[in-house]
Amino acid sequence: MRISVFRKAHFNAAHRLYRADWSKEKNEQVFGLCCSPNYHGHNYDLEVRVTGEVDPETGFLIDLKVLKEIIKKHVEDRFDHKNLNLDVEDFKTMNPTAENICFVIWKILREQLDDKFELGVRLYETPRNYVEYPA
Ligand code: NI
How many whole angstroms separate alpha carbon 63 and alpha carbon 39? Predict the structure, then answer.
């Protein structure tokens, strides 16, 4: 039986969207309030989907305790109450947009999960704005 399980998680983080190689005017035009120099925060909600075959012996797809710990250790502990631009290596060279954060989280989790699982990540930057990888 092929099935998906989901785990929700949450972190608060600050960010700023800008390009150092662009003028102040162009940054403001493209990124609006999100490029304000003193950063701002979001309450990010994360939904992780793991898909695969149920183990007939246990009836589990994946032990949710294990999934919870992976997300906590590798995503929440790394991102929660952090300044994404300054504290997370990937965003020193890449804008921490919801799109890029979602993809980075997917990459982090992909490394932690067995290849037999399919993985999907949905990231809410606000209750109404969210992104999903893979598309
Ligand atoms: Ni923002």
Answer: 38
